[in-house]
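Page 42, continued from yesterday. The earlier attempt failed because a stray header line got pasted into the input along with the sequence. Redoing it now with the clean sequence only.
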Amino acid sequence: MHDLIKRYVEETVRHLPVKEREEVALELETNIEDMLGGDSSTEKVEETLLALGSPAILARQYRGKERYLIGPETFDLYVMVLKIVSLVVGLVTMVITFVSLFFASDPINIAQMIAKVLASVFSSLSSAFLWVTITFAIMSYYQVKTEPDQWNRK
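This time it went through. Structure tokens are written below.
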């Protein structure tokens, strides 16, 4: 087998689950050999491999299903929930931090107060982002239905 074919097949199957690699490698090698039609010149091999495209994209086709952390079905809802949660968490954290700083027993200057508020808001928003993302990733993984019912004008 030509070295370019071997490298192309190895790069393609590297993107696949281990249990599928051997079978896909054999199938891909056979397909490439059929496409070459007995002409194993370097130019013909390069032309054939370029026609097949990127090994990563080809591997996706063999895998059959796309891999998403958050699938396209739930992405719009994810963004909407993330905006709402970020707004609520940010405002609540800011208010609570300001109130707690005003009632603190130690005197604090304005720069320290702003720094503490920003640190608290950043920390809270990071946590909110993490938990919303984890929730939607689990929903995507288990394919939870998020589409609303059919629209009806009545």
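Notes: The first helix runs from residue 3 to 13.
Reminder to self: strip header lines before submitting.
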